[in-house]
Amino acid sequence: MWSLTVCSGWLLAALSLCMLAGFFSNDRQLQNKQMKNLRRCAVAPIILVLAGVVCAQNQTPLIPAGKTLEIAEHIYVIPDQRVNLVPNIGVIVGRDGVLVIDTGMGPKNAETVLGEVKKITSERIAYLTVTHFHPEHGMGAQAFPPGTTIIYSMAQKTELMAKGKDYISMFKGFSPEIAELLKPVRIIMPNVTFAEEAEVNLGDVSARLLHWGPAHTLGDEFVFLPEKRVLFGGDVVVNRFFPIMPDGDANGRNWIKMLERMEKLNPAIVVPGHGEVGDAVLIAKMREYLEFVRDRVEQMKSQGSTLADVEKRLEPEIRAKYKDWGNPNWIKNAIDNFYNTSAK
Length: 344
Ligand SMILES: [Zn+2]
Fold this sequence. Notes:
Elements: H1 2-20, H2 28-36, H3 38-41, H4 43-57, E1 69-72, E2 75-78, E3 89-94, E4 97-101, H5 106-120, E5 125-129, H6 135-138, E6 149-153, H7 154-172, H8 176-182, E7 192-194, E8 197-201, E9 206-210, E10 222-225, E11 230-232, H9 252-264, E12 269-271, H10 281-302, H11 307-321, H12 331-340
Parallel strand pairs: 4-5, 5-6, 6-7, 11-12
Antiparallel strand pairs: 1-2, 2-3, 3-4, 8-9, 9-10, 10-11
Helix pairs in contact: 1-4, 7-8, 9-10, 10-11, 10-12, 11-12
Bound molecules: zinc ion.
């Protein structure tokens, strides 16, 4: 019953958002203008799919305490334990302070992260960086101690400003528990931004913060620690979950290129945005999946199949091929993304 209420709430929220954006307007000129704003309305698919995912799982997304793993010297992960809307959090401990990667959703989760950092080290948190603007990744920044230098890619800052509030409202509709986590959230702007790359030097360990264009979002960022060859992939790399193309800003084609570049970094350990920690095979698997969807979509489109036909035929094929991957609701979005951007 609970799920049903929440799911219908979601549907209404999605529809009202689109209507607010004037998407259903009868005025043609306004409609054209609003088509340009489709990105705002394009949140509707994420609402519906995520609602489905959250309704299916019905678990409050809490960062776990007492589970933190040391994955290499200086480098720790607070694992997501495969709970939807809980990301893997990175903690890098150097002589000159700590860098935290992602906060969890809302200040309550960020407090858990801060508690875990205290258990590892007495060093102060010098830096926070966020892999992308989605609420479960960065919207706990306000709980970090004053004086923490917050670093985002410029594209992420712009996207946060454009979509942050809408995403908070949407996520609040997922469940009363999520609404509670997000109620106190204030959107925090970074102290420092970078275009493509920034380096954070913690004395005896350094991190490269990288932004290589749009993939899962417009502002995806990932973190590479060259000395230990550890990569934090954000949601560009997920483990045994289907990659998510939440709205019209997702870019499957650049996503593939980005994964090719990531493979060239030759990481020994890969921390995905969601799912278990692994190695470079995770990047290859993600790339192979996206290439498979792209190639099948293009093949079917070139034979004259409509988008609806492709979805109908290809989705079951993908589900069968990737049986042990979670959240298959997102397959359709990947098909649509490649279909709509295919030249053929
Ligand atoms: Zn995300």
